Amino acid sequence: MTHPSLPEWVFPPPGGFSAEDLDRIPDLPAHTELIDGSLVFVSPQASFHTRAVDLLVSGLRRTVPAELRVRREMSVVLGRDQRPEPDLSVVRASAEQSPEQTFYRAEDVVLVVEVVSPESKTRDRKRKPSLYASAGIPHFWIVESDDGRPVVHAYELDEVTGGYVITGIHHELLKVSSPFTVDIDLTEIDLL
């Protein structure tokens, strides 16, 4: 029995929703994610979140190799019941199928970045890294706010353990050589 004021899709089917359901459900709120077969709705983003994503997208696009693309807010299918939407991803250029494309596959993703919001702390810090690592995504960054300044925690997949290991915590300058050469002045967030 459903409540008359709620859409039918609010109630999960037996076994939960599948990754494909996100493209079929009418009037689904923007940026809805699928985590463990359940729909996750995001809250409005704060200024820090938007500015941090803009800063990283701009910086990554300056140095990304020709065979890769930087994309923001595109979902990634990790499995039947897993389709999170990272704040940004770096994907293989060959993963681009059409302008109407709504997701990428895990095997096409080189890096995912999550900017932590107050409502998503547990998902961004605990659940999503586990999901991304299990799907074999080689690099994961999580961005935290330190009094309005971004701090980037960079991780790389350890193929022996199947989990991420930290490769650095970057406060004012994000300078890494993997997955490609990146050099971003994190203090430029104040200029956005």
TrEMBL record:
GO terms for molecular function: endonuclease activity. The keyword Transport does not apply. CDD domains: DUF820-like. Gene3D superfamilies: tt1808, chain A. Keywords: Endonuclease, Hydrolase, Nuclease. InterPro entries: Nuclease_put_TT1808, Restrct_endonuc-II-like, Uma2. Residues 20-179 form the Putative restriction endonuclease domain. Pfam families: Uma2. PANTHER family: SLL1072 PROTEIN (PTHR35400:SF3), SLR1083 PROTEIN (PTHR35400). This is Uma2 family endonuclease. It comes from Planomonospora corallina.
